[in-house]
Design a protein that fits this description.
Order of helices and strands: HHEEHEE
Strand content: 15-25%
Distance between the termini: 99 Å
Shape: elongated
């Protein structure tokens, strides 16, 4: 320490050292920013996929809640047709942010059904087999029935004996 030369690090201080290293810090900085951007995109994609899976897990419970409400109202009203306005879910948003529509169509066979819109055909196809195995459901099918939104509506026809 006693033999300090004018060009030593201690003599010139950090300003001189920083100015001599400027050219070598730009490349690592650009590389680290690129890595951070790629990691951020991957993280956002993973979050979106988890959100979609969460909705697919919540959707069956929501639909079964609708069916339970319909059955309870059907028991109260007997053979009188159910008006869509009497159901709490008609015209309300589901977990996918789409509006659920209940319909009572009277023709040769009285059809009681509701349309449960999803965000994609894959979501509809994933939900359909869950409902096809229950006796209360006459038919569950995916399609573009009334909304014109492209094969992502789960149409559930209900059976009541």
């Amino acid at each position: 320490m006693n033999n300090q030369k004018p060009n030593s690090r201690m003599h010139y201080g950090l300003k001189k050292v920083a100015s001599t290293c400027r050219g070598t810090t730009l490349a690592p900085l650009v590389i680290s920013l690129a890595i951070a951007a790629l990691a951020g995109i991957a993280f956002l994609n993973q979050g979106a996929a988890l959100g979609e899976r969460k909705n697919l897990i919540k959707a069956p419970d929501e639909v079964f809640g609708y069916i339970q409400e319909w059955v309870n109202l059907r028991k109260q009203k007997g053979s009188t047709p159910i008006n869509p306005a009497e159901l709490s879910f008609h015209g309300k948003q589901n977990v996918f942010g789409r509006y659920v529509n209940y319909m009572h169509i009277t023709s040769t066979t009285s059809t009681k059904a509701f349309d449960y819109p999803t965000q994609s055909p894959a979501q509809c196809d994933a939900l359909k087999p869950i409902f096809q195995k229950y006796k209360i459901i006459q038919e569950a099918k995916c399609g573009d029935f009334a909304c014109g939104c492209g094969n992502r509506v789960l149409h559930i026809e209900l059976r009541y004996n």
